[in-house]
Design brief:
It contains 14 helices and 14 strands. The chain is an alpha/beta fold and 421 residues long. It has two domains: 119 residues, P-loop containing nucleotide triphosphate hydrolases (Rossmann fold, 3-Layer(aba) Sandwich), CATH 3.40.50; 277 residues, no CATH class. Strand 3, helix 4 and strand 4 form a beta-alpha-beta unit. Helix 7 packs across helix 11. The radius of gyration is 22 Å and the shape is globular. It starts with 9 loop residues before the first helix and ends with a strand.
Length: 421
């Protein structure tokens, strides 16, 4: 039986993109729900991976690609990169038809360089789709919205029903739509199988360069051990020596790029604000996987294992919060960064909108760390030059606790189980 479709934040984003563009490309990790979301909007579809027809589709693409575009709009072209000529065919068809909402393309890998003749600018809109947030999986009650924090309409009060035990399971299960609602043994097995497919097949297939599976595994284990940190290539190389003979930084970079092209790795870039003083800022990105369950599966850690190792739990919890913040921010035309200066002052997440508004977030699992986190956020606020930038719309400590409230100093304490876009 086909699983019931759970509404995605991407639904409205796709509707808006179809209204504005002739075609929309949905990119993202394999199994994150791109095809299912596209099918909810598509009237006709072409599934390139259907084994009964793949051969015929590829021959048609080589001979007359326009044949594959015939069908009612919007027409879904799933895993279009299997026949890259479809990109230029779609671009041309959009020009000829002169109407919006004609095609939806989905892809779980960035194709090889120079395989399309035109960027698609002005015809094909791009949209990144990530795995499900806790709000989309119905585990966050959504009592506090990121938009309301920016608009100044949030009172900050709420209560989460997500216990630490439930968070440990949600983290190791991941935001994969097919696993939401499944029992623990099934969900964890699927996350493990996903990682094995990456290591054994996907990472080599993306660019046609064969990669040593044991080295890919060692790299992913190192990334998992260093998740939510600013580990450099040198740090990763030295850490990989625990599992594998040392690789050059150039080789590691090639492997990392392949993982990025299949949307497995998504580092968090550093924020570069105007400061009151000439403070040196750290510009290294923070290491993150697309979904925290990838790190958990690589490390072979279960929910019970996380509850016995709160250091690892804390780092993976931060990664889960970053995933959710990225999705919520994307829905309101924003991006997420991290901040750290040479003195050690930091914010785990800076959410910045295109209109210049911004908010700072510290991620802390437990209540004991809230006071220190709030003090850090207030210190950051004082260092930012508000003559050149706006005052922060909000300062927030995002937690694994259950009670949401606004402190006397104005800092919001928000359980991740209360947050939404």
């Amino acid at each position: 039986m086909k699983q019931k479709y759970l509404k995605r934040i991407a639904d409205k984003m796709l509707d808006d993109a179809l209204e504005a563009s002739g075609a929309v490309l949905i990119e993202g990790a394999k199994w994150c729900g791109k095809t299912r979301t596209a099918e909810e909007r598509a009237v006709s579809k072409l599934l390139m991976q259907d084994p009964d027809y793949t051969g015929s589709y590829l021959k048609a693409a080589d001979t007359k690609p326009s044949l594959l575009l015939n069908g009612e709009a919007p027409r879904l072209l799933d895993e279009w990169q299997m026949a890259p000529v479809l990109w230029d065919a779609v671009r041309f068809a959009v020009d000829q038809r002169g109407e919006s909402g004609q095609f939806i393309l989905t892809g779980s890998a960035v194709p090889k360089d120079n395989v399309v003749g035109h960027t698609g600018t002005g015809r094909i809109s791009r949209m990144l789709m990530r795995t499900m947030t806790l709000y989309e999986s119905l585990e966050s009650n959504g009592g506090i919205s990121l938009k309301s924090l920016f608009d100044g309409t949030c009172d900050g009060d709420g209560m989460s029903t997500l216990t630490i035990e439930k968070l440990a399971f949600a983290l190791t299960r991941g935001g994969w739509p097919a696993s939401v609602g499944e029992k623990e043994s099934v969900a964890l097995r699927r996350a493990s199988d996903y990682v094995e497919a990456i290591i054994g097949v996907d990472v080599s297939r993306v660019d046609g360069i064969e990669k040593n599976p044991s080295r890919v595994r060692a790299l992913m284990r190192s990334l998992a051990r260093n998740v939510s940190t600013m580990a450099t290539l040198r740090t990763i190389r030295n850490d990989m020596a625990v599992d594998e003979d040392s690789l050059s930084e150039k080789t590691i970079s090639i492997y990392l790029n392949a993982l990025r092209r299949i949307f497995v790795v998504e580092d968090l870039l550093a924020w570069n604000p105007a400061m009151r003083s000439k403070t040196a800022l750290r510009t290294h990105p923070k290491r993150h996987f697309t979904d925290p369950s990838i790190a958990a599966a690589v490390l072979r850690v279960s929910p019970d294992g996380l509850l016995r190792d709160f250091n690892t739990f804390g780092l993976l919890f931060e990664s889960l919060c970053i995933r959710d913040l990225r999705v919520y921010a994307q829905a309101i035309d924003g991006e997420v960064f991290h901040f750290r200066d040479k003195s050690g002052l930091e914010a785990d997440a800076i959410v910045q909108l295109k209109d210049g508004r911004w908010g700072a977030v510290e991620v802390k699992m437990g209540a004991k760390e809230i006071e220190t986190a709030a003090e850090n956020l207030k210190a950051l606020q004082q260092k930012v030059n508000i003559d050149k930038m706006k005052e922060p719309s909000f300062l927030m400590v995002l937690t694994g606790t259950e009670l949401a409230y606004r402190r006397k100093d104005g800092v919001y304490v928000t359980p991740v189980g209360c947050l939404k876009d």
